[in-house]
DNA sequence: CTCGTGGGTTGCGAAACCCAACTCACTTAT
DNA sequence: ATAAGTGAGTTGGGTTTCGCAACCCACGAG
């Protein structure tokens, strides 16, 4: 009867609103300041202001002061924010592969070895790298109710 | 000046609206019908109806008729939908790890070997499994403009 | 012939979104 | 010494979207 409790829903409470992930993308890309994020995302300024606040409150970003008088802060990733990288990469990759007219986007993340990073699925017990599509669905049968 | 073109934005156009990912979660979990998805997500019926439509239009879900008269369809994952698994797993894992009071959620995806699957980042050139947090950010310096 | 179920649609008030303009607090040009 | 520009928002307003409850239609069961 009640909605399923799920960490996905919890995650979406923090980063699931419109513009949140695009704002985070900019910070990942090294754009740390309000106007830059506005320009690169196209988000309305007021909406972005509240998004950044919830991201800070949610522990994903932290403000770093770079000027007293006038007081101005940059937005930087926390550890929690950094660890969103796999999920964001997964979405980017998916968009590239499956959404028509998505840009082939040259901007990607690089490993320290110089190679490009990719999001994948790994089996925690046998360590095997699972190709997308070989996921076994949980055996909930056709159960519909809660 | 213009917003950055990015496959992440394209992806979010398809699966970024409220309830979309939760609806997809249900389909992943084997709940294929409207009422089941409504019950398990808590989404308003009207919103869910339009979300399912955009997911179908976006090629993530497909309708599978299971009854003529009255005509009734189930929602099933397409290949594109299945390949959202890494991204969704990434978000679930992140929620579990970083969001307070997120359920420890026993429902996960399993590999054919019986182990639990996890989302990770892999280097495409050296093949190394990169621990979250070791991501090298693109060297955009402090560039702010477009 | 009424009840229940599945899959929606409709109406309407509340909330969120978007945009343009405005505010401070400075810094740099003229 | 004004004037114009930058950075980081806030404010006012109109427009969409959300969310909820109620309704509808087709059927099947009792």
Structure explained in plain terms:
Two copies of one chain form a homodimer. With about 150 residues, the first copy, chain A, is of the alpha+beta class. Chain A has a domain at about 5-85: Winged helix-like DNA-binding domain superfamily/Winged helix DNA-binding domain (Arc Repressor Mutant, subunit A), CATH 1.10.10.10. Chain A has helices spanning about 5-15, 20-30, 35-40, 45-55, 80, 85-100, and strands at about 60-65, 70-75, 115-125, 130. In chain A, helix 2 crosses helix 3 (about 35-40). The model of chain A is unreliable at about 140-145 (pLDDT under 50). The interface between A and B is large, with 100 and 100 residues. Chain A binds a DNA duplex (30 and 30 nucleotides) through helix 3 and helix 4.
By oligomeric state, this entry counts as: homodimer
Largest interface: A-B, 100 and 100 residues
Give the fraction of residues assigned to helices of chain A: 25-40%
Give the averaged pLDDT of chain A, no decimals.
83
Q: Tell me the CATH architecture of one domain in chain A.
A: Orthogonal Bundle
Helical element count of chain A? Answer: 6
Cα end-to-end separation of chain A: 5 Å
Please summarize the sheet with the most strands of chain A. 2 strands, antiparallel
Shape of chain A: globular
What name is given to the CATH topology of one domain in chain A?
A: Arc Repressor Mutant, subunit A
Biggest sheet strand line-up of chain A? 1-2
Would you list the SSEs of chain A in sequence order as H and E?
HHHHEEHHEE
């Amino acid at each position: 009867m009640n909605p399923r409790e799920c960490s996905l829903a919890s995650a979406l409470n923090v980063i699931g609103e419109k513009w949140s992930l695009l704002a985070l993308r900019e910070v990942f890309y090294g754009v740390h300041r309000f106007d830059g994020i506005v320009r690169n995302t196209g988000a309305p300024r007021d909406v972005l202001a509240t998004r950044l606040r919830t991201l800070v409150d949610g522990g994903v970003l932290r403000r770093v002061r770079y000027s007293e008088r006038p007081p101005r802060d940059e937005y930087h990733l926390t550890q929690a924010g950094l660890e969103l990288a796999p999920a964001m990469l997964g979405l980017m990759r998916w968009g590239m592969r499956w959404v028509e007219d998505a840009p082939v986007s040259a901007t990607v993340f690089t490993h320290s070895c110089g190679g490009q990073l990719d999001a994948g699925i790994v089996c925690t017990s046998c360590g095997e790298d699972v190709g997308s599509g070989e996921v076994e669905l949980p055996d909930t049968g056709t159960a519909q109710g809660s």
